[in-house]
Structure formats: C-alpha cells, structure tokens
Amino acid sequence: MFAYYLDLALRSLKRNRVLTALMVLAIAVGIGACMTTLTVVHLLSGDPLPGKSSTLFFPQVDPENPVVGGSTEPRPAMDYRSAMDLWNAHRADRQAIITSSPVKVRLPDSGQPPLLPSMLSTSADFFPMFDVPFQYGSGWSADDDAHHARVAVISADLNQKLFGGANSVGRILRVRDADMRIVGVLKPWRPTPLFYDPWSQNFSKSEDVFAPFTSSMEINKGNFQAYTCWHVPPSMGDLQNADCVWVWLWVELDSPAKVRDYARFLDDYANTQKSLGRFAVGSEHARLRDLMTWLTYRGQVPGDVRLQAWLASAFLVICLFNAVGLLLAKFLRRSGEIGVRRALGASRGAIFAQCLVEAGLIGLLGGGFGWLLTLFGLWLVRQQPVDYAHLAHLDTAMFLVTFVLAVGTSLLAGLIPALRASRVVPGWQLKAL
Amino acid sequence: MQIKPILAALRRHRLATLLIAMEIALACAVLCNACFLVARRWTMIQINSGVDESSLAVLTVNGFDPNQAADVNARMLTGLRSIPGVQSATLISEVPFGPQTGAAGVTHEPGDFKNLIGVVDFVLAGPGTFKALGLKLVEGRLPQPDDYRPATSFLPDDAQVLVTRQWAEHAWPGENPLGKDFWCDKMHFRVMGVVDHYARAQPSQYDLQQGEWTVFTPVVPGGSLAGTYLLRARPQDVQRVLQAARAAVPKIAPDVVLDQDNSKTLGDLRMNYFKTDRIMIGLLLGVVVLMLGVTALGIVGLTSFWVAQRRKQIGIRRAIGATRGDILRYFQTENFLIVTFGIALGMLLAFVLNAVLMKFYELPHLPLYYLPVGALVLWGLGQLAVLGPALRAAAVPPVVATRSV
C-alpha cells in the first residue's frame, strides 16, 4: 500500500510542479536557515572534555571588599592570597592554579625579533587534568613548582615559529630576562571553548608558553593583568598584594563525597575570611560549579549566535504555517478524486495515510535541498571574521537532525490538511462530478 | 464594497483564514523586532567618535619594562616624527575602537563604593594629543603645560580633565559641569573643559547612551603612558605613513615588540570593530526579506486555490451583473480583512517577542511607531500578493456559470 501511496504522491507532485517547487523551496529555506544556526549553537555548546568534564570544578569566592555595585555573583577570578590559600590547602585530587599574562619571548643568540605571546602560569597538574596532548617531552613536576624551576612547555604553533617544528625539548627559551629550559612541546591543541580561562574570548586560541606559576611570578613580575580591582593597585601589574582579582583555580574531584567536602571547605574558607574582616561576603558568594555548569553560566554561546538561532526558528515556524496552507489547498483541490476513492471503498485512514505520505515526500525533498543550503550556510559562517568560524562543520548527528526536522516539520504541516481531506464527504463530491 | 458576504465566505474557510492570519501575525512580530534590532545596530555603527578618523593611525609596541618607558617613548617619538608625511606623533593610552585600557568606576565622593556615577574610560594623553585628535571643545579651556601630571600607577592622583557632553549630562544633569569634582577611589579629578563628542574605546550596542563616557586626562609621558602612539597625517597619506612607521619600529627600538593587531589606521579599526554588527544587520535584513517572501508565497498559493474553487460562483456573479472590478475588489478586500486580523494578533506577538528579547539581551522597549510601519508593510505585501490571483479571478468569463463543470 505504501508503494501505491508513494506513486500517487509522485503523480500528484508532478501535476502541479510550480506549487510543489514552491513548497519544497519554502521548507528547504526554513530548514537551511534553522539547521545552519542550530549547528553553530550545537558546536559552540559542546563539551570540551567529554567523559571528564563532570569531575572538573571551578571554585569561586568573592574577595571584593567592599562589594562594588551590589553584585550577587562572585567575580570569575580571585585575589592572589585567596587563591594561594585554597591551593595550599591541597583538598582536591588534582588542582591547578592559573593566571595568564603577555610576555616577551625570544631565542638567545638569534637575530629573530622578539615575540609577545601569552604565557599561562600554572602548576604541574594542569596537563594531566585537562588531557593536554604532548608532541615531545612532557609537563613539569610538582617538584619543579616547589623549586620555582625555570622550565617551560610551548605550543605546537610557537615550536613551529621558533624551531621549525623540530623536537625542541632541552633547548633554552629567553622569557623576558630569564632563560627557561623547554621540557615539553604540545601537539596542536585548541580546546573549544577555551574552558579553563574564565575571562578570555570563548573561542580564542590557548596560550603559547606554559610555565610554573611560582617561577613566572618572578619572571614576569610587573606585567600581570587584573580582571578588575576594587582599590587602585600601588603599581600596575604588581598584583600579589593588590586588591585585584586575577588568579583562579580548577580542581578535579573524583567522587560526589569529595565534591561535598570541597564545597564545605570553600564555604568555611569564605566565612572565616569574612569573620576576619577580609571578605565583605562569606559563603553566600562561594560557588563550586562543574565544568559544563560553569560554561552554561558563563554563556559560552555568543548572544548574536543565539539571536540568529531564535530568528531562524521563527522563520521555520512561518515556513511551517505556509506549508500547512499550501498542503491544505493541494489536498482539497483533489476533493473529487478523494470522493471517488472513498466511494470505491478506501477508508478515512487510507486517505489520511496517503496524504501524509505525500507530505512526508515533500519533507524529504525539502530536507535534501535544506541539507545543501545548510552546507552553504555553514560555508558562509566559515567566511565570517568570528573566532568560532573554524568550528562550523556539519557532523553526523546534525546531518540526521536535518532530515528528521524536515520530514517531521512537513508531517506536522500535513497533519491538519490530511485530516481535512480524509473528512471529505464522498456523496457531495460525486454529485459535483 | 460589502463586507458581510466576504465575512460569510471566510467563515466557511476558517482554517485557511486562520493560517494566513497566523503567518501574517508571526511575520509582523519578527519584522518589527528584527527591524528594531537592525536600527539599534545601525545607530551603533554610526557612532560619532569625535576625532578625525581619516587622518589618524595608532601604533602600539609592547615588551618593555616600566623603567624603560621614558626611554622607549623618547626614541619612538623622535623616530616616528622623522617619517615623511607625519604631521604629529603623540602619546595616548587608547583610541576609539581599539583595545580598552583604562575603564574605572567613578563617584561624587572619595572612597565611595556604593554610589557609582558610572564606569568611564580614562584616556591618558600626552602633550599635543588633544589637537592631533581634532576634538571639538565646547566649553571651558584646553589643557595648559602644567595641567599634565605624572601617572606612575594607573592615573594621576589629582588632575584637571576634559569630559564629553554625554558624560557631563549624565553625571551633573542640568548643571554646569565646569569645575565639578569626581573621584576614582582616592584619586581626584576636576572638569576643566567639555568636548562635543569623544567615543570610548569599546562602545557597546547594549548601552548606546554610554558610548561617549570618556574622560580625557592630560598626563606626563612615561609611567603608565607609554607604548601607544597616535600618528596624524593627511588623509591620503595615513596608510603609507603607518606602513612606514611599522617598518621603522625594529630600527627605532629593536628590543620592543610591535603589536600587529593594534597598529592600524582609525578607519580600519572602526571597520574591524563593527564587522560583526554589519554581518548581523545583513543577516537580519536577509531573514526579513526571505520571511516576507515566504509569507507572500503562502498568500498567493491559498488565494489561487480559492479562486479555482470559486470559479463557478465568480461566473454566476459576473453573469448577474458584477463587473471585473467588483470581483477584483472582492479578493482585495478579503485579503485586507485577513491581513488586518493577522496584524492585530501580530502586534500582541511583537510585544511578547520584545519582552523575551529584553529578558535575554538587555534591550529597551520596542518603540510604538514600529507597529504602524510594520502594519503598512504587511498590508502592502498582502495586496501585492493577492493581485495576481485576484486578476485571474476577475478574468473568469460569465459563461462559466452556464457550464456544468
């Protein structure tokens, strides 16, 4: 029966080619617009560390004192002292203390002009915690952290620039005025979004130089940048004793019990600091969000992208209404034919099914063209000067969603017209013939 | 034109009527809000920076220590001024559409944290910068040589500054801003002059009213005022002068690093800064046009169906004396009624959509005048779409009435 309906649908579609083309086009354009934007949203809201993100947490306390402007959320970073206190407590399975600053880098005894990449100051656990892939060598040890060792890890990009991609482990890099031994070179690594950095552009590149936190405090002294300050620091860039937030922590907690313990520890710390008069607010502004919750809270999908997705969805709804109207016209125009079929014994269900097959076929065609339009739309996105442009590719899941959405939309659109068509009273139509 | 028979006919096609009306309603809501968003971005893009953009370029170098600042400044200024075509090379901390370097909350009282007047951009500027920018002074006086104060940390402890009219009206509404005091933490500022327009480094579309909250602060070169240089040249020379300056940096100061991204002409900085906004405007307008197209298509499709369905009735009406014009007007009036119904729904929907957008995007209320304009557009669209099928209906000959099918 299905093959027969398909045949009928094809015949019906061929009979009025212009109307068919218009319907397919409307669905295709709606699907194309919707899928392009949804794919971007889907890609941008992806999990940067699947399988691991639920064990990574971003602890926050609010050192701002007094709180400026009555904010109800803590800042996305801490002052040096709070971060060091939390770090020195060693309450987590793994923990990384992080800040980022621009630093002058060059090869000693080379004629190349100096570069000014960003340096990520962190601790040994950073690399295993975030599954950072190494091309050569490895990260540094906790000992190196403790001894303020002059060691560094560099990105694949910087390795390419300075050493032409060769194994540079053991070479010396002049970082500002210090000579640092390269212990590791990363594989090309571009976590998207740049989840570990709470105040960078979401989809920017990661840093080029990684150095122990303790060492870089000495090496790049005076060049650190504050996220915000509530008192003007005595000297810009010298932030260790300043009332500024610029350092943050990530912790790995492997069991729910540990998460509870750490949250309690964080609350206690904030309350203690409040009672000491150092914080203005205590545990009310202490947060322990896991990675994905943090990314959602932070709003990793840019506002413009969300707006585009909303707009495209509204557009698809208009296309849907349009399809309903056109299908209604198409089916009811064939009332005579339907009357004959009913008179010859076709049940209402049979008419209904026949109409839906036709609607589904239109959806399938619309989905096919919509898929092409989506590919075109994503190509357009890749041409845009936005930092997530390189991400815009259609994955298998979204490819399937395209067709499911197209067929689903047209079946939904066909529902009411099909119901109407199946209610056609055979007698009237036969009389009119 | 009699409306009653049309209403009676529509009552028999409730579903199709409702569909067109719903389509119009959605189109109306999206149209009004999309145009509102476009208008806001357009206003943003048109922001008056207050400076002679076509004559200016900025050059930024990094990678030197604070104690080298004075030396780097001296070498750079001498080197840049020797480039042919350079009218002036002066020090500035930030320019419109470049990176923001000095935003801070200010208050009416020292050390106050509760009652911020707002967050302003402090632009630190060396001697000659005011003139180089081409700012227009509307009140007060220009900075004199002893107005330039040293800034070792972030800002001078006590300085006479120039503010924009927009900021003055926000901070001291209805008052003469000259001689007024304000504070940033414990640092004191007094207004010596007011400029007409001067955009902050990173104006945002979400606070259009704050795009010129800029404080022009005269500062002695050195300390925190180092590394960013404002070049002025004739408009036709700017690009060439900037290229020459970029090329000269390694010779002037081999130990500093040229910031490639932030060494551009102000025209290019502006182009770059509003790139995504321009794309968004294009996208919004594209969607609006597509949406109107699809809506028109739906009207054409359904009306064509109605015309085909009513061929016989049209023939009868023509046979008993209706003119072609009567038939034409019948369909036009019918469409007008449906679209009007759709627009009425659409206005409600437009406000709902606006409320949603306001929740997520810090937008203000949709101005009321968008609604009649949107209504006019949709009426026009409906009439245009219905014209083809209505003309076909008017062309139905009376003889159809006498045929059985």
Produce a short descriptive summary:
The complex is a heterodimer of chains A (433) and B (405). Chain A is of the alpha+beta class and 433 residues long.
| Cα shape of chain A | elongated
Number of domains of chain B: 2
CA(first)-CA(last) distance of chain A: 26 Å
Q: How would you spell out the order of helices and strands of chain B?
A: HHEHEEEHEEHEEEEHEEHHHHH
Unreliable spans of chain B are: none
Helix content of chain B: 40-55%
| Chain-averaged pLDDT of chain A | 88
Return the structural class of chain A. alpha+beta
**Spans where pLDDT lies below 50 across 5 or more residues of chain A:** none
Q: How many extended strands of chain B? A: 12
Shape of chain B: elongated
Number of helices of chain B: 11
Tell me which protein chains meet in the greatest interface and how many residues each side has. A-B, 55 and 59 residues
- How many beta strands in the DSSP annotation of chain A? 13
SSE-based structural type of chain B: alpha+beta
The percent of residues in helical segments of chain A reads 40-55%
What does this structure look like?
The complex is a heterodimer of chains A (433) and B (405). Helix content of chain A is 49%, strand content 14%. Chain A is of the alpha+beta class. Chain A has 2 domains: 2-45 and 302-432, no CATH class; 53-297, no CATH class. In chain A, the strands form 2 sheets. In chain A, strands 1, 2, 3, 4, 5, 6, 7, 8, 9, 12 and 13 form an 11-stranded mixed β-sheet that branches. Chain B has 405 residues and is an alpha+beta fold. Chain B folds into 2 domains: 3-45 and 276-403, no CATH class; 53-273, no CATH class. Chain B has 11 helices and 12 strands. Chain B starts with a helix and ends in an 11-residue tail after the last helix. The chains are: A alpha+beta (433), B alpha+beta (405). At the A-B interface, α2 and α10 of A face α2 and α8 of B.
